[in-house]
Amino acid sequence: MSEALVVLPTYNEAENLAQIVGAILAASARVDILVVDDNSPDGTGTLADALALDEPRVQVLHREKKEGLGRAYLAGFRWALAHPYRFILEMDADFSHDPTHLPDLLAAAEHADLVLGSRYVAGGGIENWGLGRRLISRGGSLYARAVLGVGIRDLTGGFKCFRRETLERLDLDSVRSEGYSFQIELTYRALNLGLRVVEVPIVFVDRRVGKSKMSRQIFAEAALMVLRLRLDRRKFRSAK
Known about the structure:
The protein has one domain: Spore Coat Polysaccharide Biosynthesis Protein SpsA, Chain A, CATH 3.90.550.10. The chain contains nine helices and nine strands. It starts with a strand and ends with a helix. The chain is globular. The strands form two sheets. A seven-stranded mixed sheet has the order 3-2-1-4-7-5-8, sandwiched between helices. The protein has a two-stranded parallel sheet with strand order 6-9. The chain has helices at about 15-25, 45-55, 70-80, 100-110, 130-150, 165-170, 180-190, 215-230, 235; strands at about 5-10, 30-35, 60, 85-90, 115-120, 125, 160-165, 195-200, 205.
């Protein structure tokens, strides 16, 4: 068993899965992979099982149905905490998060409680997005920063590395977000606990194949959840 686990949620990622698993394993000898599949109709779960048979560093967690990205990550985090991993990472399965950044996140996690792969710090960036999507992403982060009163520049990103102790303190059973706002909520909870959160630069690249799962409904739900998180900030601090 390696010292770090990459939690990789999938839903209809059969076209990407073998390639992303190979790229992650090649990027760092320090990581195992947990594929968390939400009963993908395109056979992603079956493919994941086949990869796990050939590679001892790959495990698969099958879920009965699609319940949102946040629920999939929470299931993966609980699985990770039932095993002796020091670091737990999250990333997308569609190559929008470049596995070559994994060593940077792990190195930073030696001295931080939560490491964020950030598009909006020096050295970070976005490739292959149109102007509209760039404005939505940047606007979402600015909105969350303003409402929550925090200095983190990329609150909505999903490429992260948690120390084990951080996840153990976040009270995962009380996390309410299921979609886009899930990333904001976990980072905000960590900040309110006084944990050290740092950003390292990454370059985010639009997915290679398939369609983005982002929608207007998901974005609207996230905007509302940010307001709820602001109202709940005292509750998060009481968990210290």
